[in-house]
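Hi L., both proteins are below.
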Amino acid sequence: MKTEGFLFAGISAFYALVATAYWVITKEIVGSTALALTGVLAFLVGFYVLYTSRRVGTRPEDDPNANVEDAEPDYGFFSPHSWWPLAVGFGTFVTVLGLVFAVWIVFLGVGLLMAAIIGFVFEYYHGAFADV
């Protein structure tokens, strides 16, 4: 985790430098503040990751002499054939579209979204891929 922490610390230093240069060149408050806050957020992530890396210890990713098989082999199960994420995305799209244009579209979108989430959750409980 130290590599990630140092990466975010470097990003924080970069944004601090860019924010300072931007302020000196343009004297614009909004852009300088946005760049400075980006640096602060990167610093927060970097500090947290470096702080927790002391408690976690050395991972195989941090050891230059580690082998590939030293890492955690199980990353979970991901369905290679599922169309439900597309339905969830469409339901979310319709819901957000309803937030922009009309309330009745929100109800339609939430209905589509709930149906898609239920289908996504129970995908392996029915049909050709059900565990028998």
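That was the first. Here is the second:
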Amino acid sequence: MQEKIRRFSRKREAIRNALAMTKTHPDAEWLYCAVKPQFPDLSLATVYRNLCEMKKNGEIQSVAVFGGRERFDAVTENHSHFICDKCGKIDDFDAVNHDGSIDKLAQEDFDGKIVYHTLVFHGVCPDCLSKTAD
């Protein structure tokens, strides 16, 4: 069966660029609002469809679902995240070494094949902590 050839799409490129330009790990609605001024005919369904395709092709990654909304990251290299359980803020978390040692350790205790892992820390961000201290 012949592989489907993907045509260039200005809207898909704008969605990808908007995602790459932010560190906030946005959801589809945030990206829709960011790209809509460039493309008045853009629909939220188009944003969802393109995010799904980019995720399937490994161009972006899904970080988590918070508040019923899937959050995305343009950085596809293996890295960890921190999610604030109060406000939903997602930050990259670089304190953990991603040299493959954790995959090797897990593989030693697993009869299947480890391909990759994700590591997400949950807690309360500094902003939310300072609000509760007041």
